[in-house]
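Example record

The entry below shows one chain as it appears in the dataset: sequence first, then structure tokens.
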Amino acid sequence: MAIIVNMPRLSDTMEEGTVASWLKKVGDKIEEGDILAEIETDKATMEFESFNEGTLLHIGVQEGETTMVDKLLAIIGEEGEDISSILSNQGKVEQKNITESDSIVEVKAEQENVTETIITKSLPDGVIVVTMPRLSDTMEEGTVASWLKNVGDTIEEGDILAEIETDKATMEFESFNEGTLLFVGLNEGESANVDDLLAIIGPAGTDVSAIAANFSKSSAKTEVKSELSEPVKPVVKEIVKTETNAVGDTVSVVHPNSSERLHISPLARKMASDKGISLNQLVGTGENGRIIKRDVENFNPSFSENISTDTVKFVPTGQEDFEEIKNSQMRKTIAKRLGESKFTAPHYYLNVEFDMDNAIAFRTQYNTVPDTKISFNDIIVKACALALREHPQVNSQWFADRMKLNNHVHVGVAVAVEDGLVVPVVRFANEQSLPQIGAVVRDFAGRARNKKLTPQEMDGSTFTVSNLGMFGVESFTSIINQPNSAILSVGSIVQKPVVKNGQVVVGNTIKLTLACDHRTIDGATGAQFLQTLKGYVENPVTMLI
């Protein structure tokens, strides 16, 4: 019987595909798993394998041509089979898809957080279509890491069919049905969306080729009915066995209770079988006492013989708890602006370390003046303002059609508040004295914490300084406060051994990181700015000249 092969949906956003190349030609014999063609999607060019056997009778889309998903791609059938009626009908045939009149049952059984979806639809007696299960709450597609059963194998309820790689982990997928594995819809390493065809189980010898060929979850209109009033959640028990290890220490090792299903990874099971090791002799060191690869590799028969008293205990259980906090308008604005900055401005970072010995001495002497108090942050802000006058490229702003080089210097100073972060602006910072800058910043910080700043006081910065040194942070990177082109991250002053005049002495240093927008500031320009800044910070008396 001729089988129509439609353009497959090879990505979740794919709407049409282009045949990049055919790997088979009309008249070729096709085996299950053969690569028919390379299909160019909206994301990549991918190999398209056949899930059917027969002769390639017709190619509906030539190389370089494009067609919509689910439109005729090729026809496979018996050699010499007449397909003229199919072609005359423009490649459309009546497919036995799932319809509302079909008998549909979706069964979901939960066991160790595993869900299996089964769809039955006018199928031969005993035939079950198994689809890609949703093994995590965010899973949209899964990849078959390995098959533990082969076509033709007898399947018992509880047998592990495959290991499925999700967006979170690789998990064992158990069968909740009995029968023979008649068809495998995905090869190892292949991916499919949740609810796509994964396998078919049924009585031995049943021909399911037409079912596999015509299966289409996208056309399924399912009425969901739960056949299980309560999810199956077995109590997992463990056995703590007292053992003596190789160095004579007494240890407690967790084993799965022999009355429960043995918790063992498929790879460990196979390795144990190959080595002739009884599973009951193995000690599970994985999560919840699960036997894993290393347990088989490290198996020591004499060690297992020392197992003594069994003590049954239950896996610890607890109650998850959380608190939801509604996002404030400030937090929403911060998230929006920083997100836009990080993903629109190409950031790069320059890291430097300055000697602070002279700055410490300068500040100490300056603060001896009555009614005068300056901070190291004031020194940094003033030094930045003077350096920016010499490097207007760093004092710039980027717009879609132009770059703005600012001749005035307005330095934004990041201030942490309860709801997030605000950046009041020290205007014409290069023209203000150190005490003036200190007074303005302290006033801003106090009013910021009381939410008394005006929008005008937080607007118009041309450069930003963010200082976390007072919190003991030695170095960090910041996200540029757009439309600025740069932001300076200031760490704490650290006392450590340094080399001066060929001698190791105790010194004081500070680490700074300049984040730059590569659209406006080249690496060399940023480095030159930091050299100028270094001159002012390490010799602050020059800022008074």
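Notes for this example: The chain has four domains: 3-88, 117-219, 237-314, 329-544. The first helix runs from residue 84 to 88.
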